[in-house]
Amino acid sequence: MNEKLYEGKAKILYSTDDPNVLLTHYKDDATAFNAQKRGSIVGKGEINAKIASRLFQVMEANGIPTHFIDQPAPNQMRVKAVKILPLEVVVRNIAAGSLCKQTGLPEGKVLPQPLVEFYYKNDPLGDPLLTRDRLFLLELATESQVEQIVKLALQINAILQDFFSQCGITLVDFKLEFGTDSQQQILLADEISPDTCRLWDAKETDPNRRVLDKDRFRRDLGNVESAYQQVLERVLQQTDKRL
Question: Where's the SAICAR synthetase/ADE2 N-terminal domain (predicted)?
């Protein structure tokens, strides 16, 4: 019997017979606003596991090291054991969400260049935005790790922008997490899915109808399951061509 090692908002992590391999179970639970809003999205766990598995394979095919091994079940993923760095790395291409609230930028403004931000992965503190100096003060990562993470984040952004563009989807912004393996190599971890990305239908101009991500849950826009399913179908179609 696999031992439960950790349960988060969207996933449960289990041990396996191999100490270097973990099993991730994706849940249907949905949370927003640092878990102040809770609910469930039918089939989300399976959809996100499939999307994340395919996108991790796209990353690996483009030279990005990840923790992904395989997908033994529709709502599960086997991953390499890593020590997660307590950082949420957000890459923004278009102004939306907290960036608009904190700066007054209008939603939908295309940024002159991708913006990479760091947030402290700490629920009790509300996952605050970090300056570089605060990041180093808290010893959350080394300078070389931060340099490597920024480089990887921008590479991942370029890959995802191209990929989603081929899917007819605009990549607005997204959150990444990284971890270190036993050799201290930095690996892309966690997931890439409609839970962690802002995705807009490229052909839709209506600010509500274009939303294909967790903002449909956050903002009570309805049709959450169908939006996630639409992303899955487009990702599967595109990766079938590439992989």
Answer: 4-234
Coil vs helix vs strand at 72: coil
Q: DSSP label at 26? A: E
Q: What DSSP string describes 115-144?
A: EEEEEE--GGGT--EE-HHHHHHTTSS-HH
| Closest to 25 measured CA to CA, from 152, 212, 191 | 191
71 alpha-carbon distance from chain centroid: 17
Name the packing angle between helices 44-61 and 224-242 (round to 10°): 30
- The CA distance from 48 to 54, in Å, is 10
Each as own residue / partner, the long-range contacts of residues 202-206 (CB below 8 Å, 24 or more positions apart, any chain) are 202/165, 202/168, 202/169, 202/170, 203/168
The answer to whether 187 touches 82, Cβ cutoff 8 Å, is yes
Number of Cβ atoms within 10 Å of the Cβ of 14: 17
Q: Which two tokens stand for residue 14?
A: 């289990």
SS3 content of the chain, % helix, strand, coil (to 5): 35, 30, 35
The Cβ of residue 177 has, within 10 Å, a number of other Cβ atoms equal to 19
Gap between the Cα atoms of 14 and 7, Å rounded: 9
The whole-angstrom separation of Cα 30 and Cα 41 is: 6
**pTM for the complete prediction?**
0.96
